[in-house]
Write a structure and sequence with these properties.
This protein is of the alpha/beta class. The chain has two domains: about 10-155, Rossmann fold (3-Layer(aba) Sandwich); about 155-400, 2-Layer Sandwich (Dihydrodipicolinate Reductase, domain 2), CATH 3.30.360. The protein is built from eleven helices and 17 strands. The chain has helices at about 10-15, 30-45, 65-75, 85-90, 110-115, 130-145, 160-170, 200-205, 210-225, 350-365, 375-395; strands spanning about 20-25, 55-60, 80, 95-100, 120-125, 150, 175-185, 225-235, 240, 250, 260-265, 270-275, 285-290, 295-300, 305-310, 325, 400. A nine-stranded mixed beta sheet has the order 16-15-14-13-7-12-11-8-17. Strands 3-2-1-4-5-6 form a six-stranded parallel beta sheet, with helices on both faces. A hairpin with a 2-residue loop joins strand 13 (about 285-290) and strand 14 (about 295-300). The termini are far apart. Bound molecules: nicotinamide-adenine-dinucleotide (NAD). Nicotinamide-adenine-dinucleotide binds near residues 28, 82, 84 and 102. Nicotinamide-adenine-dinucleotide (NAD) binds near residues 32, 84, 101 and 211.
């Protein structure tokens, strides 16, 4: 038992054969802070027996009162100031896992600082604003040897993992095509969205590309493999918006509102990616299709619990066609921990699966990859994002060097 925090240390629990506690320090309490906290709370009783009991130790973010309120609401032992360095040097010095749910401009420095203190790290996506920043994070992850994971949570949708299992088993055969879109609508003119951090290059790095495109680029890496070359177009439809903090003043939007890209994979497959936050009617439309030699598959996040498959050699031929598979059986990924079949789960459960995986890796010294996205995977996704912007800028195809 740690005298300072009252939590059992990981090593002490393991020595006694008990489920160890992993003490969590979190940066950011808003959208992702809430999604991750929800997962930490569910893990001990839903992912039973859990690899570890997450303990919500310290949280920091913007604004003293807001952090204190978040700590109370989420059940963190302590609220820290809005300065992540003060948190990591001070009240969070006993944590085991640093969970970075901050905007993209506070991914690199705090995460590197935490790794150098020997903390395991979970960092929201995109791993960083540029591949150059991401590379620095990979280098420190390698030199410190801490467990590192980027929160590419769509790898942890049961249907997506089932598709990966099918690909690994050879059920699709050679893959010819990857076709992915991730579409939203919340910065269309009628929303009157001000210039928030997601529209500011100095904070976000890029626009729809890093926000949405990074997810489908990571899924392409996970399901199809490395990318050899890309070409792309990117567009900013509204170049000036009122500043979020001072609506009387206008600010320039210096990130892409939308991009489309073509790619060739190292294995010869051709792929397309499209992301936008201007797709009227599309709320969170994350959809991909893979066409293989023996089967094609299709996944749509809005149909979270299922995927579609078309088998070339389906018998009898008369009933051949696209089939919808409901991924809720006990033998499907993670399902044994949830409900009787057909009792569906949702988006927030991806974080439960993702963080359970990371805790297992931390406590049992397992590899985060290939199913979890390592910082190396985050870097590879950042390399593609940079190449897409470069291609759009120079109006030429760009070859990928990871
Ligand atoms: N995996 C996903 O599906 C998914 C979904 C949304 C966002 N994200 C990613 O999660 C990250 C956070 O996004 P969000 O939507 O939660 O953002 P948000 O704006 O809702 O929250 C950001 C949090 O960071 C804190 N913060 C901001 N600057 C800080 C600083 N300098 N020091 C300390 N705290 C600071 C804020 O107080 C706030 O609590 C981003 O990288 C985003 O790309 C991932």
């Amino acid at each position: 038992m740690s005298e300072e925090t009252g939590f059992t240390t990981m090593a002490a629990a393991k020595a006694k054969g008990e489920v160890p506690e992993v003490r969590v320090g979190m940066l950011g309490y808003s959208f992702m802070g809430k999604a991750h906290t929800n997962a930490y709370k569910k893990i001990p009783y839903m992912m039973y027996p859990p690899p570890a009991i997450p303990r919500l130790d310290v949280i920091c973010g913007r604004g003293k009162e807001a952090v204190a309120e978040a700590a109370k609401r989420y059940g963190f032992r302590e609220a820290c100031s809005d300065d992540w360095k003060t948190m990591l040097d001070g009240c969070a010095r006993n944590i085991d896992l640093f969970d970075n749910c901050g905007p993209n401009n506070v991914h690199m420095d705090p995460t590197i600082y935490a790794m150098k203190l020997g903390k395991h790290v979970l960092c929201e996506k995109p791993i960083a604003r540029t591949a150059e920043e991401a590379k620095q994070m990979v280098d420190v992850a390698k030199s410190t040897g801490v467990k590192n994971m980027v929160a590419f949570n769509y790898r942890f949708v049961p249907a997506v993992r089932q598709i990966r299992n099918l690909i690994d088993s050879g059920a699709l055969g050679k893959i010819y095509h990857w076709r992915a879109v991730y579409l939203q609508e919340w910065i269309l003119p009628h929303y009157n969205t001000p210039k928030i951090w997601r529209l500011d290059k100095s904070v976000a790095g890029s626009g729809a590309l890093g926000d949405l495109g990074a997810h489908i680029i990571d899924l392409a890496h996970y399901l199809v493999g490395g990318v050899k070359t890309v070409s792309a177009m990117a567009k900013t439809f509204i170049t000036e918006r009122p500043l979020a903090e001072n609506p009387d003043k206008m600010g320039t939007v210096d990130v892409d509102d939308a991009f489309v890209s073509l790619c060739e994979f190292e294995n010869g497959a051709l792929g397309t990616f499209e992301s936008t936050r201007f797709a009227l009617g599309r709320k969170n439309f994350n959809c991909f299709e893979i066409n293989g030699e023996k089967a094609s598959v299709r996944f749509n996040l809005e149909r979270f619990n299922e995927f579609e498959i078309f088998y070339r050699d389906h018998e009898p031929k008369e009933t051949s066609g696209w089939t919808t598979v409901l991924v809720t059986e006990g033998y499907h990924p993670w399902w044994a921990n949830w409900w009787p079949h057909g009792h569906v789960i949702g988006w927030e459960h991806t974080f439960v699966h993702e963080i359970t995986h990371l805790l297992d890796c931390i406590v049992n010294n397992k590899e985060v990859g290939p199913h979890g996205a390592t910082f190396e995977d985050g870097y590879r996704s950042a390399v593609i994002c940079d190449a897409i912007l470069k291609s759009a800028e120079i109006k030429k195809q760009v070859d990928i060097k990871y």
